[in-house]
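Journal club side-thread
Mid-discussion, someone asked how the predicted structure for our own chain would compare to the paper's figures. Pasting it here so we can look after the session.
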Amino acid sequence: MNDNTHRGLLPAGLADILPPEAEHEARVTESLMASFAKFGYERVKPPLIEFEDILLSGSGAATSQQTFRMMDPISQRMLGVRADMTLQIARIASTRLSDVARPLRLSYAGQILRVKGSDLRPKRQFGQIGAELIGSNSPEADAEVVLMAAAALTELGVPNLSVDLGLPTLVPAICEALDIDLSADELELKTALNLKDEPAIVRLGEKLGSRASELFSGLLNSVGPADNALKTLHKIDLPEKAKAELKNMSAVINCLHERSPDLAITIDPVETRGYEYHSGVTFTFFALDVRGEIGRGGRYLADNANGNSGGSGSDETATGVSLFIDSILRALPEPSPQDRVFVASGSAKIALDLRAEGWLVVEQFSADLNNDNPLESAKNAACTHVWDGSKVVPLTDT
């Protein structure tokens, strides 16, 4: 291995992002943030590293296995590198912004780092862009976050967008009504439901009872397009608490249909993976021909997520969405090269004027190679246009 190869070697799951991809990622990020701002979401910027006991408190414990840790030489306390930004925003809302009127609308963009990648996302560092609506209990709040994210992704040009709604509180509500001890059977039950394994549910029925088997099988059969799924779910004789959860999901879907009738919506009422701290309707965004999710979110208890009960002594409800920049980029066409004008040496005033007009300008220096061949220098600088002495012309016309 030569020295240059060795210096370019990076740990698994980490990568340099080079031109033009780095610029494309930045533009996509800012486009999403601008879309959120149109809905009144204000940007916050939490630190990359926090004290471990705060970062992983409450529902932050769900990211414990994915968090890099180190010792702070100043405080002598353990630090954690964020593996997710959502809970950081909840912390900011419940501390720094605790006295700001609700509902509170916040947005963020930044890099996250995880100990391990996954089959769907082998990268360990990637961009996360999101928004949190904190302090509203309304189904309209859930709908706003879904519609805002859908509008932002559509404006970017993500094709064939769809959203899959979930209700991770539904199964616990059924288990509570049927006196099923989730602590004993949770893993087996969740695995069967997440895998949509109806034979496994039937086998579990021998232990959990025929009523449980009937209900969980009914939930599995309801997975699919929203309108048909709701009809199937409403036919199931659910316990009262589960009915209340379903009623709330129905209200959210009505809001979505009313405000965006063309949005493709499906329902998976038994999916719980990645929604360990959520307390209501959840949602996952997909794009046709893009492997894996491009974003996810849902309702949660903001104070509870940080392991405290908030300044008011009661949990503060919130709805948030996180979009994953690497997946979004896979859903978009390759970026078109930006127009860049090449200006030969000795034309600094021309370069200044062109930049004022909005052009991207590359100036040739007097000592540059190929100084006697400005067109060759323009090509080497990846320029699309040149200044011909009187005007800007496409490089292909010269």
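Post-session note: The first helix runs from residue 3 to 7.
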